[in-house]
Write a sequence for this structure.
């Protein structure tokens, strides 16, 4: 405890650790169902950069049904009509979201802060909500039988203890709560690549025009690029695992030239605007599936339960859908007064197959779009041309856009 501060204690129904898309969506669903919720979030404002910004139609629909999407959009966003794989000047793959039913017939590039702030605004309308930001969860509270009954956290005003019927770990890919519970992350490095992210200011970036999310393949490594609100382009340069050290060892100018070669349309802006290696953020790409998603008193959701490669922009979709699926399970658990692994485990039972499918699809996408080598380069255009004219094209689009389309909000549990 910090000197001069009394220990703080909060008693609630559900303690959610992590105020990301999974945690805050779950909080709002529970609050609407008359459940008290405390969210413990280590950051004070959503200023963390390079979080996922692309929302798929499935997530948009759920946020809209929760009354959150319109307000988030008003804070600023760009619609993207297509996802394209471009090799030199040729579009190999052109996935057009406009073929999906309106109003969710696009991808949305929206700063994650806009979504989270809007979710928070709605949560804040409920008396039963405690937002404990600036507090880092660092310990688990257990009863005499070893069941988890809360968390401890540290913050500027000292030590905090939250006691709850059940704890939800929604604290992301490096989940501390998962580690404290002794659950293995199940990390797997199947993608064998890292992504270097950076943003450039584009002179015409804010203008109203057709937009798309692109993977460029020019010289060397593939690059992902999309317009980011308000006037930026977000670029992700894929490199073989560990390849970044090799590139930067040759200096800033060499790195810039490699980038310029990889993404020719932005070559001039790269030369002008990248002034230091600090302008570049390295993302270690891996996927993971925690060994178990529930123990007595604790359930894991979102990236804490399953972490994905950024390919196909699935993480937020999945996190929001997880919250929607877990909501009725938690309401039922509270009603029964039973937060055992047997009850909470219903979440993993219902969700595991969806997650396995997404992971398989991502591995396939990664191989199809990012693989190097003469064979892959020769085969890719042929495969892409064939795919365009098969029913599989629409099936893949719907899978990427919606995930499991049967996941629906249990609105019948809402009390307001
Ligand atoms: C570079 C990058 C690009 C991506 N691009 C996309 C994309 O375009 N589209 C997409 O859908 N997905 C994308 N993703 C994935 C997406 O961001 C995640 O899947 C999604 O944010 C997961 O949501 P979550 O709520 O489970 O976890 P997170 O968003 O990680 O939220 C976890 C929260 O927990 C908090 N926290 C962590 N530890 C503690 C602690 N000890 N105590 C208290 N709080 C804690 C964190 O501060 C954070 O707010 C991307 C990911 C990365 C890294």
């Amino acid at each position: 405890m910090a000197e001069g501060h009394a220990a703080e204690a909060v008693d609630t129904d559900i303690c959610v650790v992590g105020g990301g898309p999974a945690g805050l969506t779950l909080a709002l669903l529970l609050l609407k169902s008359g459940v008290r919720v405390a969210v413990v979030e280590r950051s004070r404002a959503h200023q963390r950069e390079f979080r996922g910004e692309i929302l798929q139609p499935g997530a948009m629909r759920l946020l809209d049904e929760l009354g959150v999407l319109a307000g988030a959009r008003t804070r600023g966003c760009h619609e993207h009509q297509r996802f394209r794989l471009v090799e030199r000047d040729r579009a190999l793959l052109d996935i057009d979201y406009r073929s999906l039913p309106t109003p969710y017939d696009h991808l949305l590039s929206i700063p994650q802060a806009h979504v989270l702030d809007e979710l928070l605004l709605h949560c804040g309308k409920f008396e039963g909500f405690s937002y404990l930001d600036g507090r880092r969860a660092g310990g688990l509270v257990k009863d005499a039988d070893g069941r988890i009954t809360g968390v401890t956290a540290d913050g500027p005003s000292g030590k905090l203890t939250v006691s709850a019927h059940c704890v939800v770990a929604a604290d992301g890919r490096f989940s501390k709560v998962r580690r404290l519970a002794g659950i293995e992350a199940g990390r797997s490095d199947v993608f064998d690549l890292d992504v270097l992210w950076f943003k450039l200011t584009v002179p015409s970036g804010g203008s109203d025009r057709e937009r798309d999310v692109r993977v460029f393949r020019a010289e060397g490594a593939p690059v992902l690029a999309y317009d980011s609100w308000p006037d930026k382009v977000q670029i992700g340069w894929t490199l073989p695992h560990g390849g970044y050290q090799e590139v930067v060892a040759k200096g800033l100018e060499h790195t810039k030239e490699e980038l310029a070669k990889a993404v020719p349309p932005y070559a001039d802006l790269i030369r002008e605007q990248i002034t230091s290696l600090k302008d570049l953020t390295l993302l270690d790409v891996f996927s993971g599936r925690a060994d178990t998603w529930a123990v007595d008193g604790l359930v894991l959701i979102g990236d804490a339960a399953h972490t994905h490669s950024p390919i196909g922009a699935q993480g937020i979709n999945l996190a929001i859908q997880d919250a929607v699926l877990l909501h009725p399970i938690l309401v039922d658990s509270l009603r029964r007064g039973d937060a055992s692994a047997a009850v909470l485990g219903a979440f993993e039972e219902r969700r595991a197959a969806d997650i396995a499918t997404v992971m398989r699809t991502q591995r396939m996408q990664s191989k199809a779009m990012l693989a190097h080598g003469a064979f892959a380069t020769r085969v890719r255009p042929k495969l892409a041309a064939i795919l365009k004219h098969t029913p599989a094209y629409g099936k893949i689009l719907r899978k990427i856009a919606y995930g499991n389309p049967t996941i629906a909000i249990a609105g019948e549990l809402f009390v307001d």
Notes: The first strand starts at residue 8 and ends at 11. The mean pLDDT is 90. The CA atoms of residues 34 and 415 lie 6 Å apart. The chain is about 35% helix and 25% strand.
